[in-house]
Amino acid sequence: MTAAPDCGIEGAAVLTDAEIAGLFAPVAASPAIVIAVSGGRDSLALLAAANRWRQGRDGPNVVVLTVDHGLSAGSDAVAADVVAIARDRGLAAHVLAWVGPKPTSGIEAGARRERYRLLVEAARDVGATHLLTAHSLEDQAETFLMRLERGSGVFGLAAMRREIDLDGLVLFRPFLTVARGRLAATAAAAGLAAHDDPMNVDPRFLRVRMRRLLPALAEGGLDPAAIAGSAARLAQAADAIDAAVDAFIADAVEVDPFAVASVRSEAFAVAPAEIRFRLVVRLLQAIGGEDYPPRATPVAALADGLRGAGTAMKRTLAGVVVEGRPGKIRFYREAGRAGLPSVPAPPGAAVPWDHRFRIEVPADAPGGLRLAALGAARPSAVVRPAGVPAAALAALPAVFRDDRIVAIPSLGWFAPGAPGLGVAAAEIVSRRLASPPRFPDLAES
After folding, report:
1. Could you state, in chain order, the average pLDDT of each consecutive group of 10 residues for the chain (445 residues)?
2. Which positions ≥6 away from 357 have C-beta within 8 Å?
3. R_g of the chain computed on alpha carbons
4. What are all long-range contacts of 352-356, with beta carbons under 8 Å and residues at least 24 apart?
5. What is the pLDDT of residue 439?
6. How far is CA 295 from the centre of its chain?
7. Nearest to residue 183, comparing CAs of 39, 66, 12?
8. Cβ-proximal residues to 319 (8 Å cutoff; 6+ apart), any chain
9. Ordered structural domains, the chain, with CATH
């Protein structure tokens, strides 16, 4: 294939075939990839580039997904146009509709969450290994400024990562170092007319306000490339801190079968402040289940309070109870926390529960089973294991049938008459602790 011609949009050149091949190299061996296309210039450039890249090569199956949020008039027509553009080029394409009530506040964050949920589910359904989005160099700079405005630390200012592991599916951003003008030129050279989303110019949204700052900052010598370069260096620093936290976890943290994490107090007390802070964040996320960390101020206050190894204390933050005791600090799920899931447990199911346990149901188990928190009213025959807080026990998964507890697999307890139920539970907090999330569904894009 010959290189695409230059196209003068704001003096920017169209991406060449060689550049596209380099940008897409990480997914060249994938059996299938999904690209997210909204109908804007950047995402249409992603579609055009992916279409050029796949020509004349044995590569992955490329599937185009577009989300109809239903937040503005004509959104369905925009989604239909994306599908038509993709199918005209021989690409499989599907519309993912956000159905149900829409938020009246936090619209941008709500739409972002739902978009990623729909995209990730659909990507897994088609067997894709990678979900590609069209975030650009300017998106990275805007994200940095947004997090700077919120007072973020090293991990927040590291901004968006090029690749994020979403439990086996990789979120991949091939254009993160490519200027927006070049993407616009690439889309235009392919004859693609972009849809202008009114949300992209609405000053109610923080990203729009940050976007408007970029030209003035560039005039002062702080252009998007310089901002993104700082984010990249901070990402390296964040990775170094995480490596030090990994070593601390291996030496001083234990997770028991009941998803209770214990930290040696004396080791915590002498660790550097940034290590203590990051460890607390990772524990809160691993046990509380949130992809995004809580605000820095309460985390810092908690980490400072826990440093006094000989002082007893108890706090709750982000759905996690934290108990400081002489010699040990314990982290476990808040039992009364709203949102502990109640989900069906059909025969043969193997599913995560509350981000802390993996539950496996035998194929020969009876129907009508349900997983929910044990709660305070546990069966009288159940004995609390030594050293396990009662509140932590109440947050364990239990198997219900007709509103009756028939098994507590973490404790190896089964109701009389149901010994062969065989439902098993294994904690996955240790795995989540070892692989902290990189804000996959709140990438501020």
Report:
1. 43 93 97 96 97 91 94 88 96 93 75 89 96 96 91 87 89 96 96 79 81 92 95 95 97 97 96 96 93 85 83 89 92 84 94 94 93 88 88 94 92 85 94 78 35
2. 259, 397, 410, 425, 426, 427, 428
3. 25
4. 352/428, 353/397, 353/425, 354/289, 354/395, 354/397, 355/286, 355/288, 355/289, 355/428, 355/432, 356/259, 356/287, 356/289, 356/427, 356/428, 356/429, 356/432
5. 55
6. 17
7. 12
8. 287, 288, 289, 290, 333, 334, 337, 339
9. 17-228 (3.40.50.620), 252-336 (3.30.465.60), 343-431 (no CATH)
Sign of torsion over alpha carbons 156, 443, 261, 378: positive
Residue 104 CB partners (closer than 8 Å, separation 6+):
none
Asked if 165 and 206 touch (Cβ cutoff 8 Å), the reply is: no
Single pTM value for the model: 0.83
Question: What is the structure's pLDDT at 9?
Answer: 57
The answer to whether 66 and 39 are in contact (CB under 8 A) is: yes
Closest by alpha carbon to 300, among 279, 320, 286?
A: 279
φ/ψ of residue 127, rounded to 5: 75, 25
Residue 223, pLDDT score: 95
Q: Report the pLDDT value the prediction gives residue 443, as an integer from 0 to 100.
A: 35
Measured N-to-C along each axis, helices 206-219 and 224-252 cross at an angle, to the nearest 10 degrees, of: 120
Give the pLDDT confidence score for residue 438 in this predicted structure. Answer: 65
Query: Can you say whether the dihedral through the CA atoms of 290, 295, 296, 301 is positive or negative?
Result: negative
Of 318, 311, 329, residue with least CA distance to 296: 318
Burial of 338 (0-12, 13-18, 19+ CB in 10 A): exposed
Q: Quick one: pLDDT at residue 66?
A: 97
Please name the residue that has the structure tokens 């440093």: 307
Residues 319 and 334: their CA atoms lie apart, in Å, by 5
What is the spatial distance between Cα 19 and Cα 7, in angstroms, rounded to a whole number? 15
